[in-house]
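Provenance

Sequences were taken from public entries as deposited. Structures were produced by running a predictor on each sequence independently, with no templates supplied. The record for Voltage-dependent anion-selective channel protein from Anisodus acutangulus is shown for reference.
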Amino acid sequence: MGKGPGLYTEIGKKARDLLYKDYQSDHKFSITTYSPTGVVITSSGAKKGDLFLADVNTQLKNKNVTTDIKVDTNSNLFTTITVDEAAPGLKTILSFRVPDQRSGKLEVQYLHDYAGICTSVGLTANPIVNFSGVVGTNILALGTDVSFDTKTGDLTKCNTGLSFTNADLVASLNLNNKGDNLCASYYHTVSPLTSTAVGAEVNHSFSTNENTITVGTQHRLDALTSVKARINNFGKASALLQHEWRPKSLFTVSGEVDTKSVDKGAKFGLALALKP
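Predicted structure for Voltage-dependent anion-selective channel protein:
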């Protein structure tokens, strides 16, 4: 597969990743280890102000079945079981959290050359049912994403999206929040050799009549170091530097400043990911 329109979550993803991915104001650390039996263990910690959050994630792969078990600071146990390619183009995901007995969810994804479908249902007596579907090609795709609460009979989510993709440009248009929010995004590859790209996102809220415009760029300085920058129409400017100091081990430093209130000082974030 891989030549079709993909899933609904992929509409506008390139622009979102350029503008928002890896930007942060917290301090994060993660270390991944691999056992001889194929078990992958990732320990993570994050300092948010005076609060420190940590979790340990264990992943085990057996043929086409992947099991992820994560324990966090509050002793919550998150389990996800993924069965990939149970049938051509089909993936099933079962997830639940202990002790929350109402958190169970079963998700089924199906990818086709001209369609991408994802359906999930909560494993409760009156579940929330989510459906997202995309039809089209790898060039032009149209999709929708809806959620229905079977207990109240309410449509809790209703989004639609349209995307256009060619060799170096990706454009998308989304109507979200039951028609209240209109989002248009644009991603353009300037130079594939240096991963240089520019992107923009425009959000309009019909209820508040407010616009949010964010523009950004990324550039690879060398084979191991890349930089990103963004600014929005409210004067919030951000930048980050990411360095791969060893294969798959990343050091990221990011900062944000309010250009309209420089006296407030800048926010800084650090992230360190270690993999053998």
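The CA atoms of residues 73 and 182 lie 37 Å apart.
The first helix runs from residue 13 to 20.
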